[in-house]
Every structure is written in structure tokens, then in C-alpha cells.
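Hi, here's the filled form for the chain we discussed.

Project: internal
Contact: R.S.
Residues: 697
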Amino acid sequence: MRIPDDGGGAAGGDPLAQLNPAQRAAAGFGIGAPGSGEQRHPPLLVIAGAGSGKTSTLAHRVAQLIDCGADPGRLLLLTFSRRAAGEMNRRVGRLLNRRAAGAPSLPWAGTFHGIAARLLREYAARIGLDPCFTIHDRQDSADLLNLARHGLGFSAREKRFPLKGTCLAIYSAVLNTQANLGAVLQASFPWCAEWQAELKSLFREYVLSKQAQQVLDYDDLLLYWAQMVGEAGLGHEIGHRFSHVLVDEYQDTNRLQAAILLAMKPDGRGLTVVGDDAQSIYAFRGATVRNILDFPQHFAPPAQVLTLDRNYRSTQPILDAANRVIALAAERFTKDLWSERSAGEKPRLVAVRDESDQAAYVVEQVLARREAGVRLKSQAVLFRTAQHSVRVEIELRRRNIPFVKFGGLKFLEAAHIKDVLAILRWAQNRRDRLAGFRAMQLVGGIGPKSASRVLDNIAAAAPGCLLLEEQPVPEAARPAWHEFAGLIANCSPGGAPWPAACEQLCRWYQEQLERLHEDPLLRQTDIEQLALIAATYPNAERFLTELVLDPPAASSDEAGPPLLDEDYLILSTIHSAKGQEWTAVFVLNAVDGCIPSDMATGSTAAIEEERRLLYVAMTRARTHLELILPQRFHVTQQPAFGDRHVHAARTRFIPHALLPDYEQLSWPPPAAAAAPANPQARQEVFDLTARMRAMWQ
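And the returned structure, exactly as it came back:
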């Protein structure tokens, strides 16, 4: 992407010379010339479209403020990653260095949570905290919550109480959305709603434990900051110490973060927020698009809204298609991205028969573009959820094409996939103690002590001398244990035929999902995908050998393994792709049920976020954009139906009226193209089909 650089021009020249008119207006809004006395700084909202040079504009605004007398030590710059804060510091430094020697640093540039920790330590004595408080990470927090869970007796209930990870997720959602516990349970954790009273007492005990130990968890950092500035005296004091507060990616803030900003700057003076409502896609983290949509009306007069709509990334045909998708949103700040790159091919809508053909088509096109000079690194395959890429990963591995996957866990390293594979491994080899220890604890009422005792008994006896169902387990767990023992017998050598044994195992595990995990619906799809993959192998031994001992190399997480090739394809969830760009982009499963996800159609707000997800995916492409539409999906073991195919429709976000924006094609090409060339061959085929029909007359 070619965007204006951060050069400030020659000394004494126009410091905003490199910016386009909209960027100049945003960078200099409310800032008078040095010494003019016109430093008004009213609240400002910059709607920065995809690829519009947002970071450069914000850096120029910070540099302009400092040029016009603002104290760098009183500028608060809030970002969503330490890397973004560091990059902003570097850009501002380069700009100021070109104007004068010795550019100052920005001591208060950082993430919301990082700044919160600094302020809380500084004000700790005034808000009842020990300045030496410690901060727990997620795992520490879950463990402390689990101690409270055990202490209250919830882990010993006859009906399994939500696990520590689920409890922490609920607690975090309540804090970040500022909704009450009942509403959060109904919206996101309905299988836990019956435990509302117990969860409330658990969270009370958890808070008391943290306070007694002088520890804060990740969410407490924002909560304590919000409570602190919500007190009139402290709020005014902390707000006044920062002459300007600038926030990047404002569409990704949650209600707690918005409350902090409004408490610090109730009149909006010196407050600048930058973001794009069309790219608000993190509701699952507690973010709300309402923050950016409602921002102007929090002030009187309303905050100024400026729009950056020139795109430096994509061709105009790609932008036209994306603009028309987002134009159908129920509510938005109106903008149409435009580019000087007016020429270019239309995006493609490619209809394929199924997910196997989708994988084959994508890999074929990736290789073709590589031969045409587009490096693998400049191409990306995007998808709504991590499991959507499994078929493509297997095809890439088969063809020895290197790739790195961003977003979500490795498919074969996700907890629920490892659970199923552990059961299967233990059924195949009872001496595999690690697999058995994990597998047995999936049974309700079986903990580490019981699992260890069973493993010791099996190790001490001759193989097969001690029946699994006769092992000493807690009486309350015995019915579930008998069912589990039968499952292990069926999955063992000589048990049920393959792949029926694996299908039975997957069905059993799916019944345990709500008890074991806080997001069962998402994980259920992964288990179904695993069953489909298993069915492509002749037996359990081959399945375990090829998928467990030699997993697809590309199923790497964001950190990734050391790269063994100088070029590699990018696979990414759409969420992880935000802020990135590639020459060629393939979007998988652009059909209803995937985009939008069939688990995100329960409300208008959820549907609108799914629309924004598609928009984000489309605007990652610079030159080539292809949306793939599988016509049918294989569904395993549906009640009353068995295995079957379901047909998919093109995503509702591209209705018929928008089709002129796309080139439409089918793959593989129609069979008619391969018809016999000579008339004699065609006549023989016709005669044969007529003869076949005559048999039934």
C-alpha cells in the first residue's frame, strides 16, 4: 500500500505537505498556528476507512500538537497493542526530528491496560490499594477462581458446576460489557443460567480473595481505572493532567473503556478518537460498535466528525464491491472508499461443488498466481472460523506448499481435538499413561486421583486381566464410567469397525461439550470436521500416525514455528487479518451459515457484525479478490437423518442486486466442455442411454 510518508517537508515548509486534504483536515483540526492563541481542541471523531492512512494521520496530529506547544508529557495516546504504541512513538519522533533536532518521546503512549497499571500504582494509596499489588494473568486468575470454587463446594455438586475457565469467561464478560450477570448468561452462556445465584456468590468470594491478597486480574485494571475516574475529584485531577487524549481503533473499545474516556474528558476538550465503525468485529471480546456510533452525541455541541475515504490499498472495482456490501448496513457513518487505482479486474464469485473442490480450486489458483509473479507471502486465504481451513491445510500439505496460519489454535492442538485423540490413543494402547490420564478425566466425577488409581491398577495387572468397567471409581460416577468403558471397548482393536468407532466416539464427546467447555457450539463443528477427516483413513492406526505424529505443518498459531522456506502462503481468520493486506485474497465459504455464521443470527446486532466481517475480509485485497461459494456441505450423524449433504446459499450480504459488481464462474468448468468431439461417439452415448431407459419401460 502506498500512503503518504511521514516526512514533514523541509524545515520551515508545510509540515502536512505529504497528506491529502482529508488527512490534513484531521491532523490540524482545532489546532491554531503556534502563538496564535487559537488552541480550541474540541472533541474530534475521525472515521478512517480501510487503507486510508490512519496511522500516518494520527502521527501527524500528535506532531502538530507538540509543534504548537503541547507538552509531550501531557499527551495520552491509547492503542490496542504495545507494538502499535511503539510504532506511533517512532513515527512522531521521525516527524519531529525532521523539523527540529532532539524530538521528545511520548511517555504516556501505551495500551489501555498498560496505562491503567501505571495510574493505579501511582494512585494506589488513595484508592485503598497496596502500591506493590501484583497482576494475575488469565491462568493465575482461573486458578484463584478455582480455589474459591472448591472452597464453596461447587466442585463437589452432583450436577457438574461450570469449570474454572467458563467461570472466568463469564466474570470477564460481565465486567467488560457492563451488563448484569443474568443478561450475560442468557446471551452468551445459556447452559450456565441455572447457576446464576451460585456464580454470583463465587464471584463475590473471588473478589474478596483478590483483595485479601492485594492482586488484580486483567479485567480489574480497567475496572479500577473506571471506578477511580468516576469519583468526581479524582476524575477531574486525572483528566486535567492530560491536555490531550488520543485513541486509536476506537471501534474496538468496550463500554468500560468508553466510560473511562468520558469521565476523564466529560466536555470532550482535547479528546480525539480514530476508528472505523465498518470494521467493528470484536463483540466476542466485549467491544461494542455503539461506542463509535454514539460518540458525537456525548458532547454539546456534538463532536466534529471527519472522514478519511481515500484508499491507498485496493483497486476501485474491489472498493466498489465492498462499498455496496457495507452500504446495506442498518446503521453506519456514510462513506464510500475511492482509489486512484481505477483499473483492475472485478472480484470473483466462484461456485464450487463442495469443500473438497474449494480446497482444490484455491490451491490451484494460488499456484497459478505464483507462476504469474505473485509470491505466496502476497496471497492470503481468509475464513470466518479456524476450522474452515482444515481441508485447504490438508491439500496444501499434500502438495508440499508451505504456509502459516494465523488466528485460533492449531486444529490438532485445540483442547477438544486433543481430548478426542487421547481417548482414541488410549483405546488403541492402554499402556499410554498420558493419554489415559487425560481421557478418563473427561468423565463426569473422575478426577486426577481416580484416574491415577485406574492407571496404576492397569499397569500392575497383566494386560486384559482387569476389566475397565470394574475399576474402583466414585459411586456417583459409576453410570458415566460404564458408558465410557463401553466406548473404549468399541474403539479398541477388534471393536467396532472403522470409521464407525470414531463416529461413535465423536458423538459421545459432543454430548460432553457443554459440561467441559464454555463455547460448545464452536467446538462441535471442529469435532464434526475431525470425524470427516477420520473417514478418509482406512483404520485408526493410520489415522493416528499421520495426523498425530505428523500433523499438517501449516496449522501453526500466530507465533509460528521457525520458517523452513523463504516463501509461504498466509492462512488467517478474518479477525486476525484486520489491519493486514495482500495482493490476492481468497475468502472461503462465502455462504449463509458460514458468513454469517449460523451461530450469529440471533439478533440484528450480531448479523450486522457478520456483515462487517465480510467487509473487512474484502478490503484486505489489493488487486485480486475471490469469494468461494461451496454449494453443499457434508453433515455427519444428524438425528433422524444420518449422514447427509446440506445445500448452501450465497451469503445474504451479497444479494442479487449486487451481482453486477462481480465476475461469476463455476469450477470445475461445466462437463459439456469435455463432450466427445466426433458425431459417432455422441450417437453411441445417446443410443446407450436410450437402451438403459428402455429396460424400465
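Let me know if anything looks off before we file it.
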